[in-house]
Amino acid sequence: MFTLQQIQAAHDKVQTGADFSTYIQDLIQLGVKGYDTIVADGRVSYYGADDFSTATDAKYETLATATIPNKERFIEYLVMHQDGQTNYYTFCQHAAQCGIAKWRINIIEMTCTYLDANNNPIVIEKIPV
Length: 129
Hints:
Strands 3-2-1-4-5-6 form a six-stranded antiparallel sheet, with no helix packed on it. The chain has one domain (4-126): YdfO-like fold, CATH 3.30.1810. The radius of gyration is 14 Å and the shape is globular. The chain is an alpha+beta fold. 22% of the residues are buried. It has helices spanning 4-11, 20-30, 71-82, 88-97; strands at residues 34-38, 44-47, 53-55, 102-106, 111-115, 121-126. The mean pLDDT is 93. The longest helix is centred in the middle third of the chain and has 12 residues, at 71-82. A hairpin with a 5-residue loop joins β5 and β6. Pfam families: DUF1398 (PF07166). Keywords: Viral envelope protein, Virion. It comes from Flavobacterium faecale. This is Phage envelope protein.
């Protein structure tokens, strides 16, 4: 099983969205099957084999999340982040402004799904390997 310390060590290598693929590869090696990130405060729940899970505490002050998603603007912010133009916290702020309540990484399917407060998928993308 993996620990939050191991995950944090992998996450510490991430400086921008451009580093995301390496992070996912590190999580695969640890045995992480997926995780959910709550945009409002940065909490993350990680899932592994045999129903194993572990979660972080809140990482920052609560961000207000827009009630109506703005998919087009979110995609613009997402592209900027993946291009390395924003850091993690700025991306979370942008996601909240666009009505993204959480994102779910499914490492088995290699997808990242961005969801609104009602768990409706707003954007689904393949994770590059």
